[in-house]
Model the fold of this input.
Amino acid sequence: MDYHCDGCGHGFTAHEARCPNCLKQTCVRVAADLPPPPGVKHLRVNAWMMVVIAGLSALSVLSVMLNLVLEATGHGISGHGNSAEAAGALGTFACVGVWALVAVVWTPINAWALFTRKPWARKSTLLFWAISVFTCGCIPVALYGLWSLTRDEVVAVTRGWTESSSSGPHGQGPAIGR
Done:
């Protein structure tokens, strides 16, 4: 039986237009067809943003490594004779490189935790966004992350996440990744 009557709760098949028990015409859908609860959309967006930022962070690490190699071989900014500019560039490379390395590790963990409904996922992702506000390139994305993860409907969805629910309803896999 695929459907349940919203009047009497009797089960019936999709081919029947009315409940065979109470004859009420019903529009109850199968649980899999129900729209996700409010807030799940923001969790999905945050999870996918973590995936994208992981990729961008990996590219940042490669860029920093390339620039450091250029500096070491004398082909970078310091090879042009301006030591103040070279010091600033190296400081920037260090800051970007450290944060990119942190993000390369942290963002995939957050994405996985959000997709698999880990109880700590929202807090970890909020912390990442809070720190990201200070990395100038991520301010708009970080502000969206902070705003969306503090909304009441998102808090309500994640409040029910426990280790036993992390595989999704009825063991069907990630609940927010669909």
Observations:
- Residues 167-174 have pLDDT under 50 and may be disordered.
